[in-house]
Amino acid sequence: MKTIQEIQAGIVEDFSALTDWMDKYEYLIELGKGMNLIAENEKTEENLIPGCQSRVWLSCREEGGRLHFAADSDAIITRGIISLLLQVYDGQAPADILAADDGFIDKIGLRENLSPTRANGLLSMISTIKAYARRYAEMPGQARHDVSPVTPGPDPGSLEDAVVLALRQVYDPEIPVNIYDLGLIYDVHVDADGQVFIKMTLTAPNCPIADEVVAQTREAVADVPGVKDVQVDLVFEPEWTTDRMSEEAKLELGML
Amino acid sequence: MDARQHFPALEREVYGKPLVYFDNAATSQRPRSVLELQQKLSVEACGNIHRALHRLAADATEAYEAGREAARAFIGAPARENLILTSGTTAAINLVASCFCQKFVGSGDQVVVSEAEHHSNIVPWQLACERAGARIAVLPVDEDGELSPEGLEAMLRDAGGRIKLVAVAHISNVLGIINPVKEIVTVAHRYGVPVLVDGAQGILHERVDVQALDCDFYVFSGHKIYAPTGIGVLYGKRELLEAMPPYMGGGEMIETVSFEKTSFAPLPLKFEAGTPNFVAGACLKPALELAGEMMQDAELQNNQEAMKNFLQEELSRIEGLRLYGTPADPARKVPLLSFSVEGAHAADLAQILDKMGMAVRSGQLCAEPLLRRYGQTAILRASLAPYNTLGECEIFIAALCRAIKMLR
Lengths: 256, 408
Description:
The complex is a heterodimer of chains A (256) and B (408).
Chain A: H1 4-16, H2 21-33, E1 56-63, E2 66-73, H3 76-89, H4 94-99, H5 103-107, H6 110-113, H7 116-138, H8 156-167, E3 185-190, E4 195-200, H9 210-222, E5 229-234, H10 247-252
Parallel strand pairs in A: 4-5
Antiparallel strand pairs in A: 1-2, 3-4
Helix pairs in contact in A: 1-3, 2-3, 3-7
Chain B: E1 13-14, E2 17-18, E3 20-21, H1 32-44, H2 55-75, E4 83-86, H3 89-104, E5 110-114, H4 123-132, E6 135-139, H5 149-159, E7 163-169, H6 181-190, E8 195-198, H7 202-205, H8 210-213, E9 217-221, E10 232-236, H9 238-243, E11 254-257, E12 262-264, H10 278-296, H11 298-316, E13 321-324, E14 336-341, H12 346-355, E15 358-359, E16 361-363, H13 368-373, E17 379-383, H14 390-407
Parallel strand pairs in B: 3-15, 5-6, 5-7, 7-8, 8-9
Antiparallel strand pairs in B: 1-2, 4-10, 9-10, 11-12, 13-14, 14-17, 16-17
Helix pairs in contact in B: 1-10, 2-10, 3-4, 5-6, 11-14, 12-14
């Protein structure tokens, strides 16, 4: 396998062949499209790198004394930049990653050609990679697959499940099916800091007990451990139709 | 009139391409008259205002007060006492949030902000409410980005007197919609609730008359309307400003000081502790004079409409592009267009457009709650000023299409 220096030299050479910055972007975009992506279930808050305008996730696992990285971003140029970093650092030993010089980034003009916010994001990615390397270098032999340099927050995924469970306990008083399976909940968004945003509708805009159902929904969700605040948005666009009901709900109401 | 000749920055090139500056909602460019006054005062009148008896200080004071007078005239405020000069919109809102809430907001009370506010019109209220044991209530926007005065009325009715103030943008920095601020003020006043209008974006696009609008506070930044950074305006109704306690303590805001008790200077100096940015303050005069001329120029106004219509039409033709802020009445939209494009991240687009000479804004636009409402983490914004041209709009659309093609 090539050393970090050899790979870096290769990248510098590739970039020097591209004179125009539009060509360099095209190249980064191509790299981004072909990158080794992180698994969807690893796109967690704790794998999110702070300081990037676009969201960037990076995970790391160790195998036989070498570190393997996977990453993704919702922006393609960012993905291309990470792809460059992974070309250099993926499959290398922690000590080599720590010792590596990042001069190639300046040699290809990446830093000076990124906006300062993006350049900060780039530095943040490198420091995350190095932080992983430092962790593994400090605990040799310990095959930890989930070492994370980012302080883990509450897992919004599991909190969201708990919120949905709570929503399933709320009923429209006239229909024996809970509001979630009725399809009245249009959107549930759970923040990293326990803020919950719910967009919901009712079966009819002139529903006489609208306030009551909304209040019940808010209370049910507020009671979920880990939820700090609940915001319920009552909307009537798009209009609710029976098509939004779950299979179970339709069965329950004898519609199937 | 030829507006561009006043703005030397518009002549520059970036990466060998002519600059297309479409980030005016972030900051506008400065005209020659402002740059010249800045230079002149820095050389000829660098004396601290309102204090010393020497000539330099007198000239500086006169220039600074002329800036205040220009701002007063520009928004139709009744008197000098209504105009507090701050470092910008954010500072002005923080001042009101802090001092108004200290005096008028207590435990269990609420301050209403809209869902479309800039962080600067959310966070100061959160901080002040937290100190007072109060909370923020949110006036939502609909899918098109419109605020409903009826919705506000319902909130005021249901709150049973606990709502103490309404803070709302004249024009949202994301949606580019001229909000129904007059109606909002009328509704709020019916319940005896004062209204702060955040004019950071409104000041450039709309002729403001604070007395006709009858708002209780109107705030804006100089740098978004051709003045330098570091100066902003807080207009307030006199009885409210009189009733509010001082904000920062320090020089020039006092009447007499002893270690036991200090009495404060009359308005407006009561709220202007410390040495202000007097050069920038003085520059409000040439900046607002030019802004006034540009607003009255029919040709420039027609050009603004033409640019807006052209961009809206061309953008709506791009597959997978979603525009935010689409009012039922198209006359209530200003040439400030925010959008997302499927399969092309805003940060990527902004980066590529930059290399083609175009300055646009990408990201959350300091309005995270509004973006969340639309399920976005980053969007792109093109915001125009009267000195932009239809030719620039054509270049922008071609560049945008090329960038999208590269990314998809």
